[in-house]
Task: inverse folding
């Protein structure tokens, strides 16, 4: 069994990507970043998901990106609501270079573990305009990993798995259902109520709702906990 470091946020996508990797035979080491996000609900969800997945180890790492700001997820700026999902501008919920930072941290842990695989739940079809969710970015980071690590210099090849890259949100939900995932454990909303109830209007909520509707599946996260 090979080891893989999976970036685990507690959301639908990272949970599904991790489950796909587990089904492919990887032993999972989960990395969750406390980056100064607006709320702790997704961190609690990441713990629930990690337990469900039976990961070998779950690390929660503090890297406070509020120091830089630049995003409505790391400042008091309002989270955009009711935005057209076909809008071309990069939304304020984009956290500058977040996936580059996260993948770099995962790369460091993978090298220590002797692991050659990193898993991330990015998606290029329902990506909300984030530049660091594109296939070109994932391919470039793989190339960087081969140049930036001792393992790479010694001839090792690190692979970044993005199994959801070309899937619609409905496809992701269907795959998760096939794998028996409990999506009631997850949290996706950018701007939830204090008790964790999703706003239903941010990009993440709208994409999630559309995915479940198109898959013909009821979202268990919207029912009683």
Result:
């Amino acid at each position: 069994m090979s080891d893989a470091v999976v970036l685990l946020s507690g959301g639908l996508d990272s949970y599904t990507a991790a489950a796909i990797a587990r089904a492919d035979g990887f032993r999972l080491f989960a990395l969750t970043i406390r980056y100064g996000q607006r709320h702790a609900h997704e961190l609690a969800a990441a713990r629930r998901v990690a337990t469900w997945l039976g990961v070998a180890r779950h690390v929660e790492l503090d890297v406070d990106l509020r120091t830089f700001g630049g995003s409505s997820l790391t400042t008091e700026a309002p989270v955009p609501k009711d935005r057209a999902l076909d809008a071309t501008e990069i939304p304020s919920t984009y956290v500058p270079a977040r996936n580059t930072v996260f993948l770099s941290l995962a790369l460091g842990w993978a090298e220590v573990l002797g692991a050659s695989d990193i898993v991330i739940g990015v998606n290029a079809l329902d990506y909300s305009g984030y530049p660091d969710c594109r296939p070109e970015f994932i391919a470039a980071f793989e190339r960087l990993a081969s140049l930036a690590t001792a393992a790479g210099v010694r001839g090792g090849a690190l692979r970044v798995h993005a199994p959801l890259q070309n899937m619609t949100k409905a496809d992701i939900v269907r795959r998760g259902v096939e794998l028996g995932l409990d999506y009631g454990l997850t949290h996706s909303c950018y701007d939830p109520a204090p008790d964790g109830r999703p706003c239903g209007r941010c990009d993440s909520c709208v994409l999630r709702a559309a995915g479940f509707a198109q898959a013909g599946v009821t979202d268990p996260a919207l029912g009683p906990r």
Notes: The chain is about 35% helix and 10% strand.
